[in-house]
Structure formats: structure tokens, C-alpha cells
Amino acid sequence: MVKKIGLITLAASLSVVSLSATEDMKKWLRPSEIPQPKDNKMTPERIELGKLLYFDTRLSTSEKISCATCHHPKQGWTDEIPTSKAVGHEGRTGPRNSPVILNTAYQNRQFWDGGVRKLEQQALGPIEADVEMNMPLETLIPKLNKIQGYKELFKNAYPKSNGNITKEYLAKAIATFERTVVSTEAPFDKYAKGDSKAISKKAKEGFELFKGKAKCTACHDGFNFTDGSFHNIGLNDGELAGKELGRYLVKRRGAWYGVMKTPTLRDITKSYPYFHDGSVKTLEEATAICAGGGRYEHNVKNKSLSIVDRKLNKTEIGKIVSFMKTLSGPDMKLTIPTKFPQ
Fold this sequence. Notes:
The protein is mainly alpha-helical. The protein is 27% helix and 4% strand.
């Protein structure tokens, strides 16, 4: 059972469907509510607590890394570092590009391989990962319980905890903040609601190509511009190993060999480099790969049937890129904490 909370209470409010929007355009409009689980309803106290934990470097062994290190609001909720893989504890390089957490509240699977469903399950993974924050929960939980300021905040946010910080309450608090990380109104949203002047002629033509000849909607559909599913887009040639196996590592199913979650295209201009391997720096190249049948056309095991050569020329690719740029809105209003509980 999932309940929802109106965004009026949140800093980053979403727009509702206007009467001027046509029936065809409604599916592209951002919803007016954020899904939330029944056992972790969003409250201002929980959101604020989660934000403090999200930015607090004391949650890492080195006390130099926070959740925001790899998913920062000023860097498209990712890291935008020169290397294609996430960099964590003592400079260790992770196996994949840092995924954006924007609009993860609307996703039914988390991580590139969709290894968990809920944000509460996702929240603790990076904390314990040896290549990320490298902090065992059996060390972190006693550490947090020694910080009186946090105990008081947990008691206010989760009265049943009585100030006793557990891994369950820690996960709930971080997940609550992450649910507030939602896309703001972009030029495309204004266009979808009936403002014909909100985007350029080139972008409008790109949108038609996006839906039509390029068939981008096979993977990037709806208001969040993702099907919420998993695809092998032909980035690697031959047999795969390690984390490149993608969802296949979650469960050994042939259909899951090498597939990765389809990311949102919201704020796509802010979240480079692209793809799970962070191997692409520009939208032009990313579009050319997806619409050209993948990086490799032959010897790719289990490539998605949606990834075929759509015969696009450079002009058409440029128009699609112009359209995707209209999916970026202003940064959500957020005060980044500089002082933390003592």
C-alpha cells in the first residue's frame, strides 16, 4: 500500500495538469504528488533529519565522504567527475558511474541493476560499500547514538524510536530526504501545458523525432522519461564479467544478462557523463549510440530489441538533443547544511 503527500509542503513543488494541456500531452506532465510508503510518511522533521544525514561526512569511515559526495545537488545529483566511475573511500574507484537520485521516488527499482525496490533498502548500501563510504553499520549505529543532537532529532522525527537510533530508522530518514529530490518545472513542462513558445522550433521537431522515427520512447517514456525497466544497449562487445553483467547479478536469468536500468532524462544536461559505465560525455554521442544500434552491432549477447539503427542523420540527432535540453529545469531550492548535530 502506497500513500502520497502533496508537494505544497515541499520546497520543490510540482505543477498540476492545466486545462490547456491536451489529452495526448498529459502523460508527459509531472505528477502533483510524491509516492511514499505507509510506514514512512514524509514529515518536515523526517525530511530535515534525512538531509543532515545525507550531507554528514561522519557517516563514512574517513569522515570525508557523505552521500552527497557522489550525488550532489550542484552536480546534477551525481558527481560529474572526470573519471567514468564513482570514487569513494581512499580514492577507490567503484564499478559503475554514479547514478542520479533525481526522481528516484517514482522508481520501483533502485541501483543500476535494480537490486532493491525501496529507497529505504538503497539508503544503507553506499554507507557500507568498501569502495564508497566504507562504514560498517555495527560501527556507525553506536557512533550516532553517542551524538546527543541526533538522538533528539530521531526522537522528534520518529517518536516510537524514543531517540534510540537503529539502522531501520537511519534508512528511513535518508530515504525520506531522497524522496524530496524531484525535478522542477522545465521549459518542456510549460510546452506540454500549452505554452507553444516555451521551446524552440528545433526542439519541437526533436520531440516529434523522439516519439517517432527515433523511437526513444521504447525506453524513455512518460513524465520521468524512463520505462522503469532494464536494457542492454550494446555498450560492450563479447562476453561480460563483473558488474557489467548488470541485473544478471541479482538473479541468473538469461533475459537479464548485461541489462541496466533505464535512467530518467529529466535534468539530463546536468548529469554527465552518461550510461552506467560513464563512458560518454555528450548528449550527441549518447543519442547516436542509442539510436544507432548501440556501440557494438555484432557479438553483443542479449542486446535489447529496442536498440536498432534508426538511420538518423546528424541534423536529426541535433534536434533530439535540443529537445532533451528542454527537460532541464532550475535546481530545486535547497539549503545545504553546514552545521551538524553534536
